[in-house]
Design brief:
six-stranded mixed sheet, five-stranded mixed sheet, L-amino peptidase D-ALA esterase/amidase, 31% helix, 10 helices, autocatalytic cleavage (chains A, B), globular, Ubiquitin-like (UB roll), alpha+beta, homodimer, ArgJ-like_dom_sf (chains A, B), EC 2.3.1.35 (chains A, B), 15 strands, EC 2.3.1.1 (chains A, B)
Chain lengths: 392, 392
């Protein structure tokens, strides 16, 4: 009787064709695991990536963008503890050396190795430690190593984040790290998705971009864009099943939504998970702009921390946008109670129960039929503490 | 011997031709003064105004925009304790009634009465109380009432803010309220400037817009745009001296800068006054965009609260802008120490002394010769407390 049932496996090694491992390189002062490897044994090695839009990009992002431009990834090396961001040409050299080292250990080309880093900004990577950690990880690569890899990319995450979804004859797995963009200089979101479906680079790219657009890119915990954000999708083709592009897009979107929810609920310092639904908008862009303006408004976020259904602050946030609406036609509900109709007070605010962690804000713009959802957290003493008490 | 020396007077009654008063109407539960009147006795009554760009405008803003469109203001009535924002058509009616009442008491037309309100959002004004307070204030109008008026417009301000500057044969006075956009739902900035110079509406408007552009509009304490922000400039012409437009612009700018500094240093919850100077920019707009991105970045603001010279977060904030720069050419100094050169670590961060309240951040974009300065505060436990603990 086998102790390992592949049908129950979650994470990056759930699909066939992938091995992974986690190891301790000593980059983190805590001595926790801080290096992960994900290897695609094929037969295919198609891949797609989505990266931070921050113009100050960390060295591993600059490297991996080049790798992904060719559409082939045979291995991903990830480290936590140091982001290798704002480190200049020397930092890029460190990333290059890491890719070369991984390639040599695995007998592949360095141009097929993607690199991800997360942790302190502005300090050089301890490369010797990292390369030794890579050696350790390479020796323990296994078909069940996904969990160890997910552990090794944690920074202030209180738990590892993994997912598994089943397609029509193939499997999608994944892992992510990130404390909802709320952590101290450790805000980076990293995500690696794997599938044993057969899919070319274009299909993977389209699926991943659409999935990110409506999930990770609508999680706006504190409005701060990291220098290192990276989302990768790797296909091994080991199932022999060609993915239907529409089904694959749905599956990747569901996986990203699941992981985004895990990030948000683990956001450091947060006491509320806030879902902002903007409806009756003229366009989806309008709906997203309004949702994001509310999500980023510190006065709204502190009010939610204080269990205060302060719809006036929500209206003031909406008023900063260029979305199509008339102020005297705005309706706002918090947790189902329409406390604002036509831009003025409506149902009794005392009826709004904000005692739980989940908060739902609904805004009707009265300008059309488009809609979008944006997710955020509250702004708390825990956030200020996390981000002021730790020096980098 | 007179006990009143006009040469020492500060505030809105410093220039000739103005009377003012403060009174207690009972709008504030605390029983503190909450109604102010400023009256221009002429001979002129030219005026200009700058208002919030928030599209959700409070009723007094909608009213006063119409009044200022005609360029004549003979009186300003201001109340604290209630912002009359998000109150719909009924709220506009309350503002209209207030202007009518002031006009009747003073024997002027309601279309020459500007109205300003600050305080709670989303609740109707207690109009009966306000009108009774107006009667009290009207009875105590005096040439030395500027200080009482400045007191009466305070909300969470710990002190009244006034200014006086002398031009070539005329005087400029002013008062402001606002706790640096940091107060709980009471973020409104109100400012009334007065002068006894002779100046037509166009000259006043040009001077006020230019002054606001480089002062109040570059104070960005928490990025939240109020529904009620109003800055007014009234000229009585009582000195008989025609103001040179350039000198008047300089004087108004200096007065606004002085008041902006007073607002910032009184920002509730703040422990740092932060000056962000962006130099070597391709354009002034680029410099402002970069300064604002830094000023609004919660990770930068919490780092400053923690006395952490975290230049990596500053670079990440710069990277979110569309300003012209190359990441590997960015230099950053904090309190005079160039801790980042060429986008990477430079001088020792241990040399940065952040123990004081004043913090100076200098960013060199290396893209031209334009510059701009933006002012902000840190993000603190006090901010979260102020904005979460008080329910509106």
């Amino acid at each position: 009787m086998s102790t390992h049932d592949e049908r129950l496996e979650v994470g990056v090694t759930a699909p066939a064709g992938f091995r992974a491992a986690g190891a301790t390189a000593g980059i983190k002062p805590s001595g926790a695991p801080d290096v992960a490897l994900v290897v695609n044994d094929g037969p295919d090695a198609t891949a797609a990536g989505v990266f931070t839009r921050n113009r100050v990009k960390a060295a591993p992002v600059l490297w991996s963008e080049r790798v992904l431009a060719a559409g082939i990834v045979k291995a991903v090396v990830l480290n936590s503890g140091n982001a290798n961001a704002c480190t200049g040409k020397a930092g890029f050299g460190d990333t290059h050396a890491t890719a070369e080292h991984v390639a040599a250990r695995l007998g592949i080309g360095p141009a097929d190795v993607a690199v991800c880093s997360t942790g302190l900004i502005g300090e050089r990577l301890p490369v010797d430690k990292l390369l030794a950690g890579v050696d350790t990880a390479a020796k323990s690569l296994s078909r069940t190593g996904g969990g160890a890899a997910a552990e090794a990319i944690r920074t202030t995450d209180t738990r590892a984040k993994q997912v598994r979804l089943d397609g029509d004859g193939y499997v999608l797995g994944g892992m992510a790290k990130g404390a909802g963009m709320l952590a101290p200089a450790l805000a980076t979101m990293l995500c690696v998705l794997t599938t044993d479906a057969v899919a070319d680079t274009d299909v993977l790219g389209d699926a991943l971009r659409e999935a990110c657009r409506v999930t990770f890119e609508r999680v706006d915990s504190d409005g701060c864009l990291s220098t290192n954000d990276t989302v990768l999708l790797l296909a091994s083709g080991a199932s022999g099943v060609s993915a239907d592009p529409a089904e694959l897009t749905d599956l990747v979107t569901a996986a990203c939504a699941d992981l985004a929810g895990q990030l948000l609920s683990d956001a450091e310092g947060a006491t509320k998970d806030v879902t902002i639904e903007v409806v009756d908008a003229a366009t989806e862009d309008d709906a997203v702009e309004v949702g994001r303006a509310i999500a980023r408004n510190n006065l709204v976020k502190t009010a939610l921390f204080g269990n205060d259904p302060n719809w006036g602050r929500i209206l003031a946030a909406i008023g900063t946008t260029e979305a199509r609406f008339r102020p005297d036609e705005l309706d706002v509900a918090i947790n189902g109670v329409w406390i604002c109709r036509g831009g003025a007070a409506a149902d009794d605010r005392a009826g709004v129960d904000l005692s739980g962690r989940a908060v739902s804000i609904t805004v009707r713009l009265g300008a059309g039929s488009a809609a979008a959802t944006v997710w955020t957290n509250d702004l708390t003493h825990g956030y200020v503490h996390e981000n002021s008490a730790y020096s980098t």
